[in-house]
Amino acid sequence: MRKHLFIILFSVLAHLGFAQQKSISITIDDVPSTTKYRKDHFRPLLLNVLDSLKVPFTIFINEDKIYKTEFIVKNKDLLEQWIKNSEAIIGNHTYSHFRYSEVGFKSFVKDIEKGDSLTELYAAKYNKDLKYFRFPFNDLGKDSTQHIQIIEYLKSKDYSIAPFTVESSDWMFDTVYQYYLNNGDTEKAKAIGEQYVDKTIELLNFYERMATSIYKRPIKHIYLCHDNAINTDYLVEIISRLKQADYRIVSFEESLTDPIYTQKDTYYKKWGISWLYRYMDTQEERIKWMKLEPSLSEIEKVYNKIQNIKN
Ligand SMILES: [Zn+2]
Hints:
By secondary structure, this protein is an alpha/beta fold.
């Protein structure tokens, strides 16, 4: 019942001209990719791309990446460059990217607390707030007990949970993309890059249709992707396609002003699904929509094949 009141309120606001224009914010997880940084001769290529696009973006940081290569001083400098960028909103993504449902409350909380030490230092230096938290794998716990426990903890620490509405398995496309590039197969790599762009737009269109069907208006979307090679090479094209489709690229904070994000997340399983699904009342409704979702089976097949070759 409350849900229906919400939706009526949303449509009234829509008729008053609220949030009529399509918009999306860009969020980037697993920052900073220090292995990529070394490979790119210590040039922050994705950051440079974002800088040249002049769009707002938000980053979710795993500080253990600083220690993943031997170039710790350089890696710290990379993190500082990300944080000091005037367009960057920053967030904690835990220190080591554990799965909450696997490691449990105690270890997970420890990892959250370990995850913001350098970030807080740089945040203070550049006068930035550190108030967002994104779960690794968007795993909010295996059941309602774990889920409620961590939400209470984050609230007590003044952390806001970072939602997303759209993702397109960029990490899977990236693995395949890099595999072809490493084998010198640039044509195949390019085809994967194009597929990634097309699939991202197709998925966004699907989530837009779903949101419009539920809320009777375009909502403020949040795109989730990662600090990786395929975004370094193809985010420009994605942004250009979004602009062609009349999307405004807005900040994460602007996205969060959409009242849809005040709804309760009632999904108590570990899977990293879109917040549009989490706000649905029943699992039946989620499944009904999930069945209509554009398929990623083509890239999954290639990805699995490559994983088999690698192992
Ligand atoms: Zn992540």
